[in-house]
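Students often ask why inverse folding is considered easier than folding. One informal answer: many sequences map to the same fold, so there is more than one right answer. In these notes we will look at a single instance of the problem. The structure comes first.
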């Protein structure tokens, strides 16, 4: 459901939860595409033409037609439910912009790590980043047309992910597919938050 600005303004602000989510992953996995596909507002992009400096540095295999790259971040918004509005921040994928990740991840409730199975090694750094900071993340496999298909369990094993980390197969160009990824992440984030509350000393279960 999409609200016009005036409708949002008229709603009880307490009933709307704004959630910051990062869309992260290696170079050229489809982060900008994903944010643009799902955003209900015109997405903000910071694309620059890939220069000759990229040659030999960035692995363009599989995305040879790619001519631009994100140099700061992508921004989009999606009203997932009337009570839950996601603010999506797509990270830059090139290693030389890693310093921006700390700034972008501040205040984020969770992340999507988008991967391309043809270049799975590029995802290790993003997985490590969120694991080490205890930011909950879901893995989304962007199933490029030319890429071989792998099962969720094969991807889990290849990336050495624990049994709890949700993994979804997706197509970053399709809205329903991206929505499914975001719902998967939010279910995980909420379940994890509830578990943490239950573990707090003095928590009374069963009301
Ligand atoms: N076939 C296919 N192509 C895709 C898909 N997602 C993105 N692409 C294409 O793959 C290329 C990479 O997409 P981007 O969205 O720019 O990737 P990115 O992760 O934002 O790239 P950086 O910001 O440079 O790291 C583009 O040419 C897209 O058109 C997909 O799901 N399937
Ligand atoms: Mg991008």
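Output (designed amino acids):
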């Amino acid at each position: 459901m999409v609200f016009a600005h005036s409708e949002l303004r008229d709603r009880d602000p307490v009933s709307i939860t704004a959630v910051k989510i990062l869309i992260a992953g290696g170079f050229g996995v489809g982060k900008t595409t994903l944010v643009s596909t799902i955003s209900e507002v015109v997405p903000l992009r910071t694309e620059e033409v890939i220069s000759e400096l990229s040659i030999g540095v960035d692995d363009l295999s599989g995305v040879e037609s790619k001519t631009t790259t994100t140099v700061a971040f992508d921004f989009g918004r999606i009203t997932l439910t009337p009570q839950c509005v996601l603010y999506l921040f797509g990270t830059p994928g090139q290693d030389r912009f890693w310093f921006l990740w700390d700034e972008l991840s501040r205040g984020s409730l969770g992340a999507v790590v988008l991967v391309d199975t043809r270049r799975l090694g590029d995802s290790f750094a993003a997985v490590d980043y969120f694991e080490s900071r205890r930011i909950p993340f879901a893995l989304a496999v962007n199933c490029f047309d030319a890429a071989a298909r792998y099962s969720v369990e094969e991807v889990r094993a290849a990336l050495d992910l624990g049994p709890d980390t949700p993994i979804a197969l997706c197509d970053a160009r399709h809205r329903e597919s991206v929505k499914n990824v975001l719902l998967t992440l939010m279910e995980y984030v909420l379940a994890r938050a509830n578990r943490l509350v239950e573990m707090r000393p003095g928590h009374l279960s069963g009301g």
